């Protein structure tokens, strides 16, 4: 009996550290990327992705993909790929060194090889419904597969590295406008709803999206991008509110960071956020024509 | 001696009974109020109430001579010596007017502004209404009144009594304060089994559909009381251009989803829209064009499903709310003309603006050189950010701020020293 009581006490205390962790998220400004190595300025970069060894920027207005080498929290310019036919909104790494680029003009995913040469449109194979696919967002999952947010057919599609369909996650029954998704290390998939200001979760092993948060309109204006760190904390870019909102693993709102402005560590209509395992967080500060680098301290 | 004892007992019993009677009287009137003090006495000073009392319908507390039902006789924290706030006092007796989770409620009721419709003392009209029912509604909904008068094809219940279709306070289950949901409400008068009903509707089972998707329930100037702007396939009765056959298992199912359906006719427009860099994403989701447009008919131009401010605000409520809060109003937003600045379909410009340069865009209405000679333009680098040049948005937030002239900071000084840092105090 004593052992049972002790176990219950321990289980009861377990959520406590998680809440404490969420409330302690601190953001430290590290630096700003204004140009490539040649000094060419960024123009309305809408997409940014940080991995364990590289930083990728979709320089939308400049119609370029910029790669940077990331090492021990520092970034240095690497390559610049011109994509004049595209309006790149997002860029994600493939496991084989290729890059997936979401083209806003054609609303399709184009594959670039490691040298930046186009390999053509991403060939999705075996998708169960023949309906059109309109990708609103793309993400490389922790296992290297590609996630595609298909707003036309109301689903998240998962493809392996050769483009073969793996599975799909259908949108919740009721929603406003789904703008982005992400997958955490445990395989949970999250959606952000810009209009309802809500995050949905498709837990591993479940068969539907459920609301993780209530409507958060008191805290944000129009969230359009989200990412998650190792601890499961969610970071949401509030595009029209020009800020970063933090949501705990339990769906609790844990405050806003940064605010509207033009100086470093301020945001002006940012569009995407990305974080890596080391806690380096990058924001595509789109209408400020730059990408900003922060570190997340717990 | 025995007689004396009996007398004493009788006296004691009498005294006790007398004291009990006095106590009862005091309990019933603890403040020793004069007769009629709860109401009738009030009328001795408030002589003008004699006219009020002559009206046909008198509010129950007043009719019962109980002014203190609503008013405090000595002092109160609320105007007119009301015993509670004017937005709450009616609900102290009239509970449950708005069911919990009501699908729709009348703004006047939600705000507790009962006196907008009712006279709290008396009236010559039923329910203590301040005017006859129809006239009363059109007092606030004046735009309806105007349109109804101009309609060539009126809907008779509208001129008879709004309450035929609407409930005045709240509707637990129906939108727009409707007594019953559509189509049941309409079918209460219109017989769907009539041959003409079926033939008029091309044999589609519209008795299962939303009548107000095509018909304006308040009347219109278009035949069959259709909304004044009709989608061509509807006016030509070409339902099958978009829908399955009326005999199909799902007759209202559309032949395609989203923009793919509209693209068949609006090919050039869709092509032009899709050839731009920044698309308005709702256009390409499952609902597509119908996020903003009505597929059949609309009271609004361009078949918008509601006035533009309302349509845009259904997703961008934060932007509209910012404008509402703003000390300075931006006229296009106030007028609901979002498309003066934004292309609602797609654009090659930031914020899907209609012009690449916001200086040129703002300049279409504002002669900025008269307003200000502060340097702006492609040659003027923003001191706060080397990748930006100064333009109108460097100082103004066009959808409004909590400060005058929709500047970002409380004072002009605060704004200027963002760049002119040496003048910071």
Distance between the termini of chain B: 106 Å
Strand order of the largest sheet of chain B: 1-3
Strand content of chain A: 35-45%
Encode the helix/strand succession of chain B as letters: HHHEHEHEHHHEHHEHHHEEHHHEHHH
Number of domains of chain A: 1
| Spatial ordering of strands, largest sheet of chain A | 1-24-23-22
Gyration radius over CA of chain B: 33 Å
Helix/sheet category of chain B: mainly alpha
Task: Give a brief description.
The complex is a heterodimer of chains A (298) and B (425). Chain A is mainly β and 298 residues long.
Structure, explained:
The complex is a heterodimer of chains A (298) and B (425). With 298 residues, chain A is mainly β. Chain A has a single domain, classed as TolB, C-terminal domain (Neuraminidase, 6 Propeller), CATH 2.120.10. Chain A contains 2 helices and 24 strands. Chain A has helices at residues 2-13, 15-23, and strands spanning 26-33, 47-50, 54-59, 64-71, 74-82, 88-93, 99-103, 108-112, 118-121, 135-140, 146-150, 155-159, 165-170, 178-183, 189-193, 198-202, 210-211, 223-228, 234-238, 243-247, 253-257, 272-275, 280-285, 290-297. In chain A, the strands form 6 sheets. Chain A has a 4-stranded antiparallel sheet, with no helix packed on it. In chain A, strands 2-3-4-5 form a 4-stranded antiparallel sheet, with no helix packed on it. The radius of gyration of chain A is 19 Å and the shape is globular. The model of chain A is unreliable at 15-22 (pLDDT under 50). Chain B is mainly alpha-helical and 425 residues long. Among the domains of chain B are: 50-152, no CATH class; 313-423, no CATH class. Chain B is 30% helix and 4% strand. In chain B, the strands form 4 sheets. Chain B has a two-stranded antiparallel ribbon with strand order 1-3. A two-stranded antiparallel sheet of chain B has the order 2-4. The mean pLDDT of chain B is 90. Classes of the chains: A mainly beta (298), B mainly alpha (425). Chains A and B meet through loops of A and strand 6 and helix 15 of B.
